[in-house]
């Protein structure tokens, strides 16, 4: 399909579906035009117009175009109207609404041998989907949320395996489940509850480990002060079922836990200390606000609706985002300077790994 055919196709889709929104104005009455760019398309209104150019119109066009372009392009959802200035002297058409896109749709990676796959990766790239990867040098903290059975443990095992060659790991596993089995097979330090010990004991031990990591951050800061170019080994603190940790422990211990988490989240970026947090849901009871603000890879798997995305994606209206069916699917947002602002459909890789972990 050529650009001009695509142009015409989008114009027709909008002419037919926008009707009521546009008070009957169409591109045939010269009320608007569409222009294809490499990174997306422009909707160019001719002003003054008999319709209002607002967030509602933007989202409406998004809805129509998103379905019309699927699966050739994935439109990248914006939280509000995305205006761009156009290079012309004609005031009537000096602005456009921009609809950025990605070519194709999100595709799941299928990995026949996860361990081999992880060791064959070079550098700090973590592949997530066929056309999406993250650079671990550019992100600090990762969160995975999802209802029971959505594929969180499966996703976590994937991350643990691909992170192992890139980063030192400390695994905290309040359920003494999959992550502990993974850690045992892979000879990685794990903190889990023990028989005959109280919940507060477990959280105290965990606070101890966080406090050591904070000391490490302080040492690394001193090194950076002398040599800002110093290269550190990544350290990732992995916490499964974060929500369950602060439940049922005394207030002082919970407060220390929150305070340590906040400090690590805030100071870890420059010193290569990361957090990977997994929880059925995240809210202000499970993590401190400052930790939420430092999360820069956000994943919600399983049920996607306005309630489940509220905390990780507070500005997101999920309307018009095509979420694939199946296990380990949902939404992802990566906030770094490499990826444009975008919330994308996510499919966690499907893989084969050693027996006895999952
Ligand atoms: N990306 C995926 N590809 C293929 N199968 C998957 C994927 N994610 C999950 N599954 C399947 O779904 C099952 C349930 O996933 P998992 O145990 O990870 O869910 P969970 O969210 O951790 O649930 P719970 O919170 O109850 O432990 C897995 O055993 C696996 O077979």
UniProtKB/TrEMBL annotation:
Nucleotide-binding as UniProt keyword: yes
Residue ranges of domain FtsK in the record: 129-310
Keywords: ATP-binding, Cell cycle, Cell division, Nucleotide-binding
SUPFAM superfamilies: P-loop containing nucleoside triphosphate hydrolases
Superkingdom: Bacteria
InterPro entries assigned: FtsK_dom (IPR002543), P-loop_NTPase (IPR027417)
Biological processes, Gene Ontology terms: cell division
One of the record's GO molecular function terms: DNA binding
UniProt key word Transmembrane helix: no
Residues binding ATP, per UniProt: 146-153
Name the UniProt record assigns to this protein: Cell division protein FtsK
Organism: Lactococcus allomyrinae
């Amino acid at each position: 399909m050529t650009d001009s055919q695509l142009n015409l196709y989008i114009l027709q889709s909008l002419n037919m579906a926008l009707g009521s929104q546009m008070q009957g104005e169409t591109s045939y009455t010269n009320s608007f035009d569409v222009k294809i760019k490499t990174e997306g398309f422009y909707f160019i209104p001719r002003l003054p117009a008999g319709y209002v150019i607002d967030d509602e119109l933007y989202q409406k066009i998004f809805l129509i175009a998103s379905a019309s372009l699927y699966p050739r392009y994935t439109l990248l959802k914006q939280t509000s109207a995305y205006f761009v200035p156009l290079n012309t002297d004609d005031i009537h058409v000096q602005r456009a609404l921009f609809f950025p896109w990605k070519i194709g749709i999100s595709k799941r990676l299928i990995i026949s041998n996860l361990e081999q796959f992880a060791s064959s990766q070079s550098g700090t790239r973590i592949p997530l989907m066929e056309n999406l990867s993250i650079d671990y040098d550019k992100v600090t903290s990762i969160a995975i949320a999802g209802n029971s059975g959505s594929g969180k443990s499966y996703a976590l095992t994937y991350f643990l395996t691909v992170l192992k060659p890139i980063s030192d790991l400390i695994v905290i596993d309040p359920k003494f489940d999959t992550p502990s089995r993974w850690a045992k097979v892979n000879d990685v330090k794990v903190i889990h509850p023990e028989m005959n010990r109280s919940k507060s004991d477990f959280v105290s031990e965990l606070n101890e480990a966080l406090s050591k990591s904070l000391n490490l951050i302080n040492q690394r800061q001193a090194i950076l002060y002398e040599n800002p170019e110093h290269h550190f080994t990544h350290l990732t603190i992995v916490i499964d079922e974060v929500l369950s940790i602060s439940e049922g422990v005394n207030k002082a211990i919970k407060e220390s836990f929150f305070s340590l988490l906040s400090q690590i989240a805030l100071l870890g970026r420059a010193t290569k200390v990361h957090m990977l947090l997994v929880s059925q849901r995240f809210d202000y009871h499970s993590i401190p606000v400052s930790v939420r603000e430092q999360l820069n890879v956000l994943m919600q798997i399983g049920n996607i609706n306005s309630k489940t995305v509220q905390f990780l994606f507070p500005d997101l209206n999920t309307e018009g985002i095509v979420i694939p069916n199946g296990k380990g699917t949902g939404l992802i947002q990566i906030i770094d300077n490499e990826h444009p602002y975008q919330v994308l459909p996510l499919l966690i890789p499907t893989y084969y790994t050693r027996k006895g972990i999952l």
